[in-house]
Amino acid sequence: LSRSPQAIAALVCAMFPRYPSGTIDNINHLQALRHFYVLAAEPRFIEARDVDTGLPCHVPIEIRLKERKDSGDGDDERVLRRMAPCLLPDFDDIESIRVT
Length: 100
What we know:
The protein is an alpha+beta fold. It has 2 helices and 7 strands. It is elongated and about 60 Å long.
């Protein structure tokens, strides 16, 4: 999920607590609001594909995160080693992605 103001507003609208008071009440309860959660989702899936066959394959990747101002962690804390296909952290936190 995204942490942008628009995404948070979409989630609040999707969980809108006012329900219809009767079977013919469509003023307070809009069915379309239930689907606003989709606006808060962002694609963060990374998948490697074989050049010859075009099929997905497992590839080790290294994700270097940006240094946060509030942490004095070492360099190892800023590097994530994953096996693609996998989910990425928030895009705002990523400095670089490298195939290892």
